[in-house]
Amino acid sequence: MTNNSKKVWVLGDGQLGAMLSYAGRPLAIEVCPVDIMVPTDEILPLAASDIITAEREQWPESPLSLQLSSHPNFVNRSVFGRLADRYSQKSLLDALHIATAPWELVDDNTDLGRLYGKYGEHVLMKRRIGGYDGKGQYWLRQAEGSQIPAAWRNVSIAEQAIDFAEEVSLVGVRTRQGQCYFYPLTLNLHQDGILRASIAPRERLSALQPQAEAMLSSIMESLEYVGVMAMECFRVGNQLLVNELAPRVHNSGHWTQAGTHMDQFQLHLRALCELPIMPPQVNFQCVMVNLIGLEKDDRWLSLANAELFWYNKEVRPGRKVGHLTLSVHEGEMLESSIMALKAWMPAHYQATLAWILDEFS
Ligand code: ATP
Ligand code: MG
Predict the structure, then answer these.
(1) Best label site of 14, 44, 202, 283, fewest CB within 10 Å?
(2) Which fold has domain 166-360?
(3) pTM of the model
(4) Among protein residues, the one whose CA lies closest to atom 12 of ligand 1
(5) Which residues line ligand 1 (CB under 6 A)?
(6) Tens of pLDDT, residues 20-32
C-alpha cells in the first residue's frame, strides 16, 4: 500500500459491505467486510490509522465485533445503539421536533382500549430492536379483536397507523467538518414491509426536498454523524413524517450506482476517509427493482438500460438477492424494459412493475 491509501473495515459482510468494497476500488480504498459471526480466536490486523464502519445498525457481541467496535477509529460509535433502538430513535426525533408517527412504549400496563382511543382502530406494534423488511411488526386491529402478544410487552413500541400518500426517502452525507450533501428524494414502493422498487429523482417531489434536507441535517448535526445516513419518510399532503433512520448506506439509495457520478457507497467512504466531497451529480433518472426471492435470470442483462447487482446469496422466499437498476434515457426504452420484466417475472412482481409503469404514464 502507498502512504496515501486507506483501509476501511466493515462490521458485517452482506451485500452493503460488498458494494462498499466495489466502490472503494477506484479510490484505492481497501474495504474489508468482516463476517462477525465466524467463531474464531483470530486477531484482526487492525492498524491504528484504519477506519471502521458498519453495514448494519445492530449486531451481536462476538470476538470479531468486539475488536472492530472497540477500535478508536470506529466512526459513529455512539450513534448505532441509539438509532438501532426504536425507543431512543423516536425519542430523538421528538426532542428535535421532527414530525414522526405518534408513538409510545408498550409495557406491562399498556391497555389496548386506550391505544385504540388514542391512535385509532389500527395500531402498529414494532419491536424496539432487530426488525427489518417488515419483520418485527405486529398490527393491532380493533375490528379483528387483536391482542397485544405477551412476548411483545416491554420490547416494543406502538405507533399510529399513518394514512400516507406515498413513501419517500432521503439519503445524505455529513462530513467531519459538518458539511451536508444530499441526493434528490427517492420515491419508494414497500409491500408487506419490504422495499420493492424505487424511482429517483422525481420532479414532482422536488418541492419537498428543502423540508427533507432540513430534517436530516438537523438529525445528523445533533448526532455529530459522519458518513451516509438514510431517512425513510411518509408523505402526507405536503408534510413529511419520518418513519425511520438508518445510520448507513441504504437500499433506497442503490439507484445512485447507476444514476449519479458519485454513488452512496463512494460518498460514505469519502466522508469516512476525509476525502474531498462535492455535491453528487445526477446523470440519469433511475428505477431500481429489488430482486426478492427470485433466481438469477440472465435475460435481465439483455435490457438496454439495465444494471444488475447480484448478491450471490442463497435464494429464499422474501429474501433480497439482488437489484436491477434501469436508467431512464427515454420513456419508450423504460416501458419496453418494464414490459419485458413483466413477461419474465412471476405473479408477485406484477403489482410492482405496474406501479412503475403507472408512475411514468
Ligand atoms: P426496514 O427494512 O426499512 O428497516 P422495518 O421492518 O424496520 O423496515 P419500517 O421501515 O418501520 O420497518 O416499516 C416497514 C414498512 O411498514 C414501511 O415502509 C411502511 O410501508 C410500513 N409502515 C411502517 N410504519 C407504519 C405506520 N406507522 N403506518 C403505516 N405503515 C407503516
Ligand atoms: Mg424501513
Answers:
(1) 283
(2) D-amino Acid Aminotransferase; Chain A, domain 1 (3.30.470)
(3) 0.96
(4) 134
(5) 101, 124, 126, 131-136, 159, 161-162, 167, 190, 193, 232, 243-244
(6) 999 999 999 999 9
